[in-house]
Design a protein that fits this description.
330 residues, alpha+beta, five-stranded mixed β-sheet, four-stranded mixed β-sheet
Length: 330
Amino acid sequence: MKRYILPLVAGLVSLASCNNHSNTYVIKGTIDPSLAEACEGCDVYLWHGRITDTATVKAGAFQFEGIAEEPEIAKLIVFGPADRSPKPGGQVVLEPGKIKVTVGDVTVAKGTRLNDDLGRLNAKYDNHRSTEYYQELFTAHRNDILGVSPMLVMGRGNKPVFDSLYALAGDYLKNHPDIDTEHERLAQLERTAVGAMFTDFTIEHGNADGSPVSLSDYVGKGKYVLVDFWASWCGPCKEEMPNLKEVYKRFKGDKFEIVGVAVSDKRADTEAILPQLELPWPIIFDAQHVPAEIYGFNAIPHIILFGPDGKIVARELRGEQIGELLSSLL
């Protein structure tokens, strides 16, 4: 958010409170000389989950000040003053102390323990995020904020690896919301793996006419059912549609059906794009996050083939493999 000039008394109280707080951080940023001219007058946004502060580059420098009750990783996002074009940014650990940041093609933050540790490791690996980089970062920071990213990167989509890292993690990581979410997601992936019976869900106003609809209205009824979880705003989802139409044309009948499920999308947006897409199969509207939470996916399109008995035949299907699989089954 932009800084506003507050009434004098309130401003003095706020400033005194911030300066006396033991968890205060001060970020003094400078722009690398190679980018100084391009970045003069740029807005620098401090982002952690949302934009929390804004500064303007003046004479090649900018500054942020705030309170960090516990360390957080934030992004520095830089936009040009005229054309709003993005410039090199970077990341910084918000933790108590004086933090110096140099923004350039490679952004370096230093001055506090976690920023210094991250900077040393980035320099060691020349900012290359290799497996070895993440392993070393996790080993050194298995009980603080810097351990979150390597744990998610190395364990994403691989429950045995994630579980092995989880066993080594300290309480901080185990209780971190991002780790907890991934832990539950991988458990759901395991529960809904190939060979498992489908898990039903009901969307209260999910039919085109606003009536309730359940996945079980289609799945487990004696047909192979290809369920496409998609959204109107999702480019890759729309790119997959011509292939799905071809599959539908080839296999549609008493042994096969496609069902589209709109997730993380406004119903009005789904309805608005359907005339353009001309999808010939039924759509479940307004499913939001329900299917993702049940089936453990975190990206779309996510396409699952259910067998006539309701068991999961295949997941994460795309492109030609869909037609090839159906040709072997039908």
